[in-house]
Amino acid sequence: MNVFRLAGDMTHLLSIVVLLLKIRTTKSCAGISLKTQELYVLVFLTRYLDLFTRYFSVYNVLMKLIFIGTSVAIFWYMRYHKVVKQTYSKDLDSFRHYHLILGCFLMALLIPFDFSVTEVLWTFSIYLEAVAILPQLVLLQKSRNIDNLTGNYVFLLGAYRALYLLNWIYRFFTEIHKIRWIPWISGLVQTALYADFFYYYIQSWRKHEELKLPA
Amino acid sequence: PKTGSVKDEL
């Protein structure tokens, strides 16, 4: 495992820690999109089906279980926790995420990694992850003020995929030497979706101002 | 195999 990959995984993990910290300490999920969180549950469940069929390492198994467990926990807090669910910004979380699911599924049927149930679902999870942040970005744009934890959460989530891009470049030259269209293009799209957010996040950080996205 | 080391990523 190279340093980009490890940094990417740790950034991903940290983003989840930040979000859980916000939910558990402030008892609030204001500014967080339940729809994006639902999409992540679906992404992890469909991608990590190979937990039953393939073994790579203890690290790999542990991280997969952590990602599935924490995404379900976040979903549970936002949907069912007596206090937390009342802070959910339901009216602002208006993105039609079912369209994303349907679109990604059709794409995965047309352009799968391989023609089998698990491979189509794996491809689906890659496509869906690329666009899963959209409901969250739309919600942020509609929010008047974005609290620090929410801003940091989204930043870390974007940084994770950007680091994976470096990991893929590194692996291409040192190890795999194969073009991997599906993850590469999806990863590029996924990272590009954050470009706008990154810009305003860094600006607000440099000017020591509150983060705000223009409508 | 077709899947190779691609799938060791998260």
From TrEMBL, chain A:
Subcellular location: Endoplasmic reticulum membrane
GO MF terms, alphabetically ordered: ER retention sequence binding
Membrane topology: Multi-pass membrane protein
A Pfam short name: ER_lumen_recept
Keywords of the record: Endoplasmic reticulum, ER-Golgi transport, Membrane, Protein transport, Receptor, Transmembrane, Transmembrane helix, Transport
Record field: transmembrane: 55-77, 98-115, 121-140, 152-170, 182-202
PROSITE patterns: ER_LUMEN_RECEPTOR_1, ER_LUMEN_RECEPTOR_2
Tree of life domain: Eukaryota
Main location: endoplasmic reticulum
GO cellular component: endoplasmic reticulum membrane
A biological-process GO annotation: vesicle-mediated transport
Family: Belongs to the ERD2 family.
Name used for this protein in its record: ER lumen protein-retaining receptor
Species in which this protein is naturally found: Parasponia andersonii (Sponia andersonii)
